[in-house]
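Standup notes
- DV: blocked on the single-chain target, sequence here:
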Amino acid sequence: MHIETLPVTPAPATPSPQKVLRGRLRQLAWITAVTLSVAFWVGLYFLVF
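- DV (later): unblocked, structure below
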């Protein structure tokens, strides 16, 4: 019985930490950009009106 027939790829269910970190960073960047733009427009609105 040979166990070498099994694929060598480690657990495909869990993505690589790099990919997870990249996705989290992208999500954080989106949230930051949206928050900044909303805060900017609200501040501008209160400044003008």
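- Follow-up: The two ends are 79 Å apart (CA to CA).
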